[in-house]
Each structure stands twice: as structure tokens, then as C-alpha cells.
Amino acid sequence: MNRALLLPPMKSFLFLASSLAMASVPLSAQPSFEAPPPSRAVVTDPALRRQEYFRRIDEVLAWRVGQLKPGELLPDMGAIAAKLARHEDADLCSRSVIAQMKEPGSGPFWMFPVVGVAYLGRDQLSADAKQAIRTAWTSQMQLRGDTENHWAMYYTSLYLISELYPNEPASSWYNGKSSAENLAESRDYLIHWMDLATTIGQGEFTCSHYIGEYAIPMLFLSSWAQDPAMRQRGHMMLDWLFADQFANSLNGVLHGANARTDDVSVLERWNCLSSFFSWLLLGNTPPPAGYGGWGIYFAAAARNYELPEVIYRIGVDRDQDFLQRDLKRTRRRWRNSDVLMAPIYKQNYTRRDYAVGSYQGGMSDPIQTHIWDVTWDVPDPRGRHNTMFSMHPVSSSFDMQTYFCELPDHMMQGVTKEGKASYDSPDKLLGGSRFEQVFQDLDTVIALYNIPPGTRFPHINGFFSKDLEHFAVDSSGWIFAQGGRAYLAYRPLAPYELQPIAAIKSSWTGERAETGDRRLYSPHLKNGTIVQAASMDEFPSFDAFKAAIRALPLAFSLEPNPTVKFTTLRGKQVVATYGQPPQVDGQTVDYSRWQLFEGPYLNAAKYSRRLTLTHGHLKRVLDFNTLTITDSVVP
Questions:
Q1: Are residue 505 and residue 621 in the same domain, yes or no?
Q2: Residue at a domain's end among 289, 315, 341
Q3: How many domains does the chain have?
Q4: Does some domain include residue 580?
Q5: How far apart are CA 159 and CA 231, in angstroms?
Q6: Is 330 found in the same domain as 310?
Q7: What distance in Å separates the CA atoms of residue 441 and residue 109, rounded to the nearest whole number?
Q8: CA distance linking residue 594 with residue 198, whole number of Å
């Protein structure tokens, strides 16, 4: 839980809330989040690609500045950062900084915006404004937080502010450590985190929103670190993060499993901060309203970064179906486990019309995990719920205590007031479960459930979108539907009923709205789901697809443990039994052989600290052992 963000002062949230609220303010020029969707055409000219990137940066900054009221102090650090990035109104920025620093916030969500302003304003802010910033780092205790993204922001901010004010004594810092001590501690943690990510995988992987909490600090580090090695590390981690995101995106929309997402973007897959980065860096999907709020801080320094062409091509230029396998890890476990961080075996199968993604089940994070889905392509993803999945909506003090260090009495109730409104709701569609086991083979998913008696919320929820066409419950037991150009077959393994969903509009308020989506509610402890996807191009008609699915050999049982034997549409004979390794064509799947990245575009051996990016003749190697970036053209 983000305990640091609940403690006074609350100012750390105010700048984000104000940025998001401004999305509703009318503009004189139409922003991209209100314009028709952008072209998906590949921009082959690097100079033109760079020019369009700069134009999008300028659009974000101009929009933010355009929301301000003339003659008034700037309301938050985002507005100040936008002004400084545009080299406008230095005196107003200085007076606004002084006003903001009268009540400094606490924690990483306050620290990194202030660091951004401090560096952007080095040659623009007044001496008094700079001193106000420096004094705030003496007077206000900064809380480190308790998650991977908190620590990335905290230590990057502390590192950069310590470099900006070197050789200062312990008495001048909030934590009683000197500039040199803060610099050394921050450097050690950041290298430790990068080592984890480049050897056994990131813990908060392919996050729909939290991508910003890593990308923005790494941009700051690569832009402003004085130490060339740390500056290089920041640059390389940016490449690493964006390569990972774009290899798991379908025309800019992040799909598949997420270590952390939220109640809105788990359904409207596009509606999250990751889409801002797709828009800014790739230009192939609309940005979210208000550029995601956080987008302003990246845009303020974005000219310092150039997306490598090989990563751009991975994101936008694909002429084949591809399977990407990645090794990640769970959040740290503090109780109830002998394993500190368990491995996550993640895969995505991406085609032109849809993508299927998953990991093997269990918990990456107890609150915001999304384990698997099928996501189909749509020309304009705004407002579309272009996804299908099932899950077990567990709510558990045991699970919370495993991953959090707070006192357990009010964990389950408290977390719903921290931006995770659905956690203790039986109809939620977000979260992982220890009692779910998932197996994926290309575009087939088998999810099995074995829920102990007495578990809170002893049922599974399946999600059926308002945007599905030709929805039909077949006498064979299959449920058929079409999403975009994808044909979908969903097979529940236990009796169920379909219920309307009042979807959550905000993970903070819990406000709900009727959308036309439906929930498959199945109140059986031993349970399961099979989903098979295909493209329209593979069949002469939807009826032909349905006939092909009905003809596939299928046998299953729920006792003593759920078991499925199924021949997939791709001709694979798969066997999945809860509590046992899956089998494909008689061979047991050996997850221990998985590499850190394995696919046509991203490849890295486990423990290697070395990622190879390829697309066509382009090759780029990020080697954290030598801190080198090597580009080449493969014959």
C-alpha cells in the first residue's frame, strides 16, 4: 500500500489531480486526445520522425501552458515545468516555486517533479527560488515508500538533487546524511535495481500506468546525471523499458499480463499512461486525456531522448505473427513465503488482428495484477473495451500480509481508499489469485481454478465486452463472439450466469457506470476457462469458425483437480491439470529453460545483463556489463 502518499502533507497528490482535471477544460486548438486517431503508417525518414516527435512534445507543453490563467501564480510543478521547458516567464516560475515550497510535500511523487523543475530552472530561476527548493530538502522529511516504482523515483531524485548540491553537510539534508552519503546510497540502489531488472526481470512489468514512474526518472537521470556512467545507465534503461513495452503493444495499445494496472484500463486497454508513450514516441495511437497527467514531466525533458530506430520499428513495423517470452518476477514477499521474489513466466502472441498474453498464474501483486487476456485491434481504441478474460476476485488479508508490511487489521479496507477501489468487491475484474493456474499456447488460453472452501469471493468472473458482435451461447457449451476482426470462442468449465456490470469509472472514488459489459459469474470452487482466438481471414464465415471450434477434441474434468485435454485450433494437443506442469504434444513444459527475453525482436539470456534488439537488418545491443550500446546493420 502507498502509505507514504496518505500521510500529511497531501500536496504530493494535488499536482496530479489538477493536471488530470484540466483534461476537461476547453482548448482553442484541438489536442490529439480529442482529434481523429493518428495514422499507423511507418515513418521511414528519421529526420521526419524526429520532427514529428518534437511537434508532439511541443503540443503537450503548449496544451499545459494554455490551461493557465493569466496573472496568477502557477498552480503546480507540472505547470512550472512546462513553462521552464518553453523558456517562458522565468520571474513567474520563480515566484510560483517559492509559493509551492512553503508547504513541501513528502515522498517520491513530490520529489521527482521538484527535481525536474530544479534542473530545468538552473539557468532561469531566481536565487531565492533555488534556495526555496534547497530549503525544502532540509525542512521536510521525505518518505521512501514501499514499492519498486517508489524507490526508482525516490533514489533517482535523491541522486540528482545531491549532485546539484554537492559537498553539503548532513545537517542540511532531511535524512541527516551528507550529499556524498546520499549520492552513494542512491547510486548503489539504482545499480542494484538495474541488476535485478537485467538478470531476473522487473517486478512491476508491463504496467499500464506505472511505466511513467520508471520512464520519467530514467529520462531525468540520462539528461542530467553528472557521472557519465549513471547518465549512460539512465539512457540504456529507457531503451530497455520502451523496447519491452512496445513489443507487448498492439498498434500502441498495451495488452496481455500486467504486474499492475487499474480498474479502468483493465477493460479499456488503451486508457492509460502507456498509451501516452506510444503516441509520443511511436505516433500510432491517440494519447489519453490530459496526456495522462504524468506526461507533462516526460515531455518537459523529452528532447533529450531519441527513440532508437530499431525500437520504433519493433513497435510499428511488423509483417509476421510473433511469440515473445519474457522472464519477470513477483513483488517482494515479506511474510507467508520462503521465496523472496518468485519468477513470472510471461508470454505474448501478437497477430495483426489481435494479441493473446498471459503469465502462469498466482500473484505478481495482490491488488492490481492482470494475469491474462485476449485483446483485439480496433481503428480507434478510445472508449472501446476490446478485451476478454476471466479471473478469481479474491480479497485476502493473508495475501495482503504477504506483500505489505503494515499492520494487518485494516489492510483490506484501507487499500480501497488508496486508488484500488475495487479490491474488496466480489464483481471486480482486477487482481491475481493464488488459486488460478494459466497455460497459454499461441492463441489458446486455459485458466484453471481450485478455490479452497471459505475463501472470500468463492467464484470466478469472466469479462464480456459491450463491443462484442455476434455474441451467442452455443448448445455445445462454447460461447462465440467477434471482436473487431478477431473470432473468439470462450468455454466455461462449470455452470454460470451472465450479469450486467456497473464498471468502475475511477479507481480512486469507486464511482460506477452502466456500460453494457457483462460478467460471467460462476460460483463453483473447481472451475476453468478455455479461450481460443482466430482471425477473420482464416475462415470463410463466422459459422465456419464456430464449426471448426466445435470439432476440436476436448475433454475435461473438475474432480479431483480441474483438468483439460484439448486440441487447439493450431493442432497442438495440450493437457493442463491444476497443480501440475502443462504438457504440449506429450512434452512437459519446462519453465526453467525460459530466458530473460526470447522472441524475434528481443533476446536476452537469464542473468546476462545484455539485451539484443533486432528488426530486419537493424541490431542494437544494450550491455550493462560494459555500459555500452552497440548499433549495427546485419547483412
A1: no
A2: 315
A3: 3
A4: no
A5: 11
A6: no
A7: 40
A8: 14
Q: Are 387 and 463 contacting, i.e. CB atoms less than 8 angstroms apart? A: yes
Distance CA 581, CA 146 (A): 33
What tens digit of pLDDT does each residue of 456-487 get? Answer: 999 999 999 999 999 999 999 999 999 999 99
Instruction: Answer whether residue 144 is part of any domain.
Output: yes
- Residue 7: the pLDDT is 29
Whether 64 contacts 276, CB under 8 Å: no
User: If you compute the radius of gyration of the chain from its CA atoms, what whole number of angstroms results?
Assistant: 24
| DSSP structural state of residue 170 | G
Contact status, residue 58 vs residue 50, Cβ threshold 8 Å: no
Residue finishing a domain among 252, 287, 315: 315
Could you write out the DSSP letters of every residue in 48-62?
A: HHHHHHHHHHHHHHH
CB 535, CB 487: distance < 8 Å: yes
* 456 close to 396: Cβ distance less than 8 angstroms: yes
Residue 371 φ then ψ, to 5°: -90, -40
Residues 621, 497 share a domain: no
378 falls within a domain: yes
SS3 79: helix
Residue-level pLDDT at 486: 98
635: cis peptide before it, omega within 30°?
Answer: no
User: What's the pLDDT tens digit per position in 160-202?
Assistant: 999 999 999 999 999 999 999 999 999 999 999 999 999 999 9
Q: Which amino acid is at 183?
A: L
Q: Tell me if 327 sits within 8 A of 146, measured CB to CB.
A: no
In this structure, the strands spanning 387-391 and 460-464 are antiparallel
Question: Residue 72, by phi and psi: left (phi above 0), alpha (psi -120 to 50) or beta?
Answer: beta
Q: Are residues 190 and 295 in the same domain?
A: yes
Share of the chain above pLDDT 90, in %: 87
Tell me if the pTM is above 0.85.
yes
Same domain, 288 and 327: no
Dmax over Cα atoms in the chain, in whole Å? Answer: 76
333 with 283, same domain: the answer is: no
What's the rounded Cα separation, in Å, for the pair 190 and 163?
15
Of 250, 280, 252, 274, give the one whose Cα is nearest residue 262.
274
Contact by Cβ (8 Å): 62, 98: no
Question: Does the pLDDT at position 24 exceed 60?
Answer: no
Q: Is the pLDDT of residue 31 over 80?
A: yes
Distance (Å) of CA 161 to CA 70, 99, 426, 530: 31, 20, 45, 52
C-alpha closest to that of 329 among 191, 194, 196, 190: 196
Rounded to whole angstroms, the Cα distance separating 481 from 471 reads: 4
Q: HSE on the CB side for 377, CA within 13 Å?
A: 18
- β partners of residue 491: 530
pLDDT at 25: 36
Residue with cell 509483417: 319
Question: 399 with 362: CB under 8 angstroms?
Answer: no
Same-domain check for residues 409 and 295? no
Q: How far apart are CA 429 and CA 369, in angstroms?
A: 10
Evaluate whether residue 35 is within a structural domain: yes
pLDDT in tens, 371-393: 999 999 999 999 999 999 999 99
Domain that includes residue 273, residue range:
3-315
291 and 338 both lie in a single domain: no
Please tell me the predicted confidence (pLDDT) of residue 3: 31
CA 603 and chain centroid, separation: 20
